Amino acid sequence: MIINCLVIKHVQSVIDQCLLTRFFVKPTISSAGLTESELKSQGKNYKVLTMPAASVPKSQVIGGPRGLYKCMIDPETDEMLGITIYAEEAHETINVLTIAMQHHLTATDLKNHIYGHSTMTEALNELF
Fold it and tell me: What is the pLDDT of residue 49?
């Protein structure tokens, strides 16, 4: 418990309050940044982007089409404020997104990137 608290505090300071969480259920749930509830309570302006996991070709290949991608974007800067993924390999895809958040990449940057086929990160071309 103490180690978990120390690690979370370290991760939180390293990636500008972009707290990363993962729940290893089937499919995995991973999130980073702020939730929609937190954004609402802070009165922040944001837009929500969602996409079913079944839209990702690899989800069909591996037989795991259940799930959803949800991202909150700052409409002025196009930067991600928070993301939650409930999908196969979410624990891998979230790594790409936390790096993007830390380095202030925009949703457009992520949309226009070329992702290997067949990977679950291909979702980012469609989500953004």
Answer: 98
